[in-house]
Amino acid sequence: MKPSFDEMSAAEGAVRSHYRTYERWLRQQPADAMQSARSEAEMIFRRVGITFAVYGAKDEDGAGTERLIPFDVIPRVIPGAEWRELEAGLAQRVTALNRFLHDVYHEQEILKAGVVPADLILRNSQFRPEMMGVDVPGQVYSLIAGIDIVRAAQPDGSGCYYVLEDNLRVPSGVSYMLENRKMMMRLFPELFASHRIEPVAHYPDLLLETLREVRPTAADDPTVVVLTPGMYNSAYFEHAFLAQQMGVELVEGQDLFVRDGFVYMRTTQGPKRVDVIYRRVDDDFLDPRAFRPDSTLGCAGLLDVYRAGNVTLANAIGTGIADDKSVYPYVPKMIEFYLGEKPILHNVPTWVCREPGDLDHVLANLGELVVKEVHGAGGYGMLVGPAASKAEIEAFRQQLLANPSNYIAQPTLALSTCPTYVEQGIAPRHIDLRPFVLSGKTVQMVPGGLTRVALKQGSLVVNSSQGGGTKDTWVLED
Questions:
Q1: What is the DSSP string of 41-73?
Q2: C or N terminus of the chain, fewer CB within 10 Å?
Q3: Pfam families per the record (predicted)?
């Protein structure tokens, strides 16, 4: 594998300028101080209940398990100028994706022009015919997007940012971004005196502002709620956290009902009309009349109210068609088609296995590639060729041959590394970054995002479900 870009150290060990103040401080810390901080963070996170459920994992009694997402006490630091370029690229990308979503559910100009294959969209399980012709407020479909960014070393020793994937349905992780910052300020207040770090604590205010901006036109003082599948969902902590931080109600499907073309929630004072639903429930489960009749997580009749424009859903039904991994390779073309601009952020080179030529290349190079399911998430259902055994590669080959349209493949990028405090001390570990992009009347985001770290030595899989952890992300003011 190619050498990784080191976020803190340049060639021959020289510390990068934006890390120098922190690196001097770190060198002065006794090992037991960092270990003590790590233990204190774990104790506080456990006490507060910052956990996530692991689907399929059971404890000794056969019950579902909850895990603490490991928190690393060494931050990831990004210079202000670097962040501004990332920010511009993210705003450009999400704007184009929202334009694409409006187009495919209306005129379908990009399909007629042959820029994106029509059958890739219209036969895709994530395309929702029920959304055809539905006008959503401001033509914004994905109000909350989580865009996964990685950095890889270039031949000249620099690091180039790439978009690894777009999460436009119900992206999670922002609560960990906020809690990580609170934890670092608690553990190391002196670092915030010696560094000018851009704040992130106002994210819930920006989120509420964005949700209120897309209210139905008749709602002057909109009622906003967060819709959760319930306490057994893996991200339930985040649902409750965001509702509490925004000062809005956390509701489940059974708390909502439809009457006379509007959505109401049950309260102790009687029914209260709901105008905006920040839903953390997948499309299939939102309305048992329209989608899965066995769903108990949604609200019967919700789709009709939504189509009539009497409630806003964030994110919109049908956004999954824009973050399907087989659609990802076309995003740079979307940016040029809708905005007339060159993409600021690069895609990772991608082979779409539904294409015979691409499939042949992937089958011939399985041991060198990362192969992913187009609807996969959480690091499941993928092959990391260089880390796989011959038996695993051959088993995956059969899956590919049986259903090639279900997979895409990418080169194995050597994700950048950042110093990380592990059991053995400080060591480099691979990281990515998930900034959270809010689209209402304008596109805005807090500086940084959630840095995820692969805690296993040599691992490139940062997902928390696969043993990854998180770091605080510092964007420095100029």
A1: HHHHHHHHT-EEEEEEEE-TTSPEEEEEPPEEE
A2: C
A3: CP_ATPgrasp_2
Using alpha carbons, list the distances in angstroms from residue 21 to 140, 193, 437: 41, 11, 29
115 and 186 fall within a common domain: yes
Model pLDDT for residues 169-226, shown as the tens digit of each residue: 999 999 999 999 999 999 999 999 999 999 999 999 999 999 999 999 777 899 999 9
R_g of the chain, CA atoms, integer Å: 23
Read off the pLDDT of residues 345-365 as tens digits, 9 standing for 90 and up: 999 999 999 899 999 999 999
Going by pLDDT thresholds of 50, 70 and 90, the confidence category of residue 466 is low
66 and 187: one domain?
yes
Check whether residue 99 and residue 183 sit in a common domain.
Answer: yes
* Co-location of 180 and 257 in the same domain: no
Domain span at residue 238 reads 217-310
> How would you write 276-335 as a 3-class SS string?
EEEECCCHHHCCCCCCCCCCCCCCCCHHHHHHCCCCEEECCCCCHHHHCCCCHHHHHHHH
* Same domain membership, residue 335 and residue 305: no
What token pair was written down for 127? Answer: 């395309």
Say whether both 81 and 94 belong to one domain. yes
Q: DSSP per residue over 437-478, as a string?
A: EEESSSEE--SS-EEEE--STT-----GGGT-EEEEEEEBP-
Do 274 and 327 share a domain, yes or no?
no
pTM greater than the 0.70 cutoff: yes
Cβ pair 335, 96 in contact under 8 A: yes
Q: Note whether 148 and 160 are same-domain residues.
A: yes
| Residue that is written with structure tokens 């691409």 in the block | 358
Distance separating alpha carbons of residues 114 and 110, to the nearest angstrom: 6
Q: How many domains does the chain have?
A: 3
Domain end, chosen from 286, 310, 334, is at: 310
Taking CA atoms, 256 is separated from 129, 217, 272, in Å, by 25, 21, 9
